[in-house]
Design goal:
single chain, Four Helix Bundle (Hemerythrin (Met), subunit A), Rossmann fold, 10 helices, carbohydrate metabolism
């Protein structure tokens, strides 16, 4: 249990960050928990893994990669403890393998849309967006990247360090400078925390403003998203909850101010009208096809045991 609680706290505090990493971490934590417990029977096993799944689910309410990862792991089968334990562990391994393969595949698909000499703008720190950029660069395309700082957690600093390590020419700008540089940009490439049934994107705060600037400048806006980041719940009309994080992330001295409230939404919503293409591991699709991805790849109700 201690290891699972440690993983949950790392996800909550954003020590583990990025939708894909969160999903893989949760899957791994559930697997290790299931292998470690010693229940008296299948009912107790089910109850304990349900509790563990609930703990992980409550860490980041917006991240559909987390809930979908847990759902996929929890679709285990078994009438007794050892068969259920083996089934759950197999599901967890399968999710992690699928996630890693998806990043590579999206890199291949998305890189075909990148031209030699392109300037790419990216926001936050997305492993799949970076996979597209690196795959294009490794193919010999001369690309340059403009990365935003991605305040208030400054994930963009991680992005520029990664790009620098790969030898890719990169510029770092503050988030509010996007409109000033957008006319230098050939395409925007961002990751995704959630893709809804309508094809709208829930992603790091600031993404919607970038999409609006790109739309105004007639600059292509590409989303890189594994299919497990699409939200089945939105098929039935549910809204994606937007996580509100601590005020201290924005203003560490907020407790000294008596008449100031700090709002710190972690994500915003980009309408599908501002998205040109969504690159998934099963192909590049227009956002309007998101409904079909959810129906065909994830199923209407994500059948199986869900805590």
């Amino acid at each position: 249990m201690d290891q699972l609680l440690d993983t949950a706290e790392k996800i909550r505090s954003m020590e583990i960050r990025g939708a894909a990493l969160i999903g893989r971490a949760a899957a791994g934590a559930l697997k290790e928990f299931a292998l470690a417990i010693d229940p008296s029977g299948i009912e107790e096993f089910n109850a304990q893994v349900d509790m563990a799944a609930d703990i992980l689910l409550n860490t980041r309410p917006t991240a559909v990669s987390l809930s979908n990862a847990i759902r996929m792991v929890m679709r285990y089968r078994g009438d007794e403890v050892e068969s259920a334990r083996t089934s759950l562990a197999k599901n967890a391994d399968g999710f992690v393998e699928r996630s890693l393969m998806a990043v590579e595949r999206i890199g291949e698909i998305g890189s075909r849309r990148v031209r030699d000499g392109d300037v790419i703008l990216t926001h936050c720190n997305s492993s799949v967006a970076l996979s597209i950029i690196k795959t294009a660069f490794d193919a010999g395309k001369d690309v340059k990247v403009i990365a935003t700082e991605s305040r208030p957690r400054y994930q963009g600093h991680l992005t520029v360090k990664t790009l620098d390590g790969w030898g890719i020419e990169t510029e770092l700008v503050v988030d509010s400078a996007v409109r000033s540089v957008i006319n230098e940009v050939d395409e925007v490439i961002v990751g995704a925390d959630v893709v809804t049934a309508s094809g709208s994107l829930v992603n790091k705060i600031g993404t919607a403003a970038i999409a609006l600037a790109a739309h105004e400048a007639r600059t292509s806006f590409m989303v890189a998203a594994e299919t497990y980041k699409f939200s089945p719940e939105t098929l039935m009309g549910e809204l994606v909850p937007i996580e509100e994080r601590a005020a201290e992330e924005v203003y560490p001295g907020i407790s000294e101010l008596k008449h100031v409230r700090v709002r710190n939404p972690a994500f915003d919503v980009t309408p599908h009208q501002y998205i040109d293409v969504i690159c998934t591991e099963v192909g590049a699709i227009p956002p309007e096809m998101s409904y079909l991805v959810i129906k065909e790849m994830l199923g209407w109700e994500m059948e199986g045991r869900v805590p």
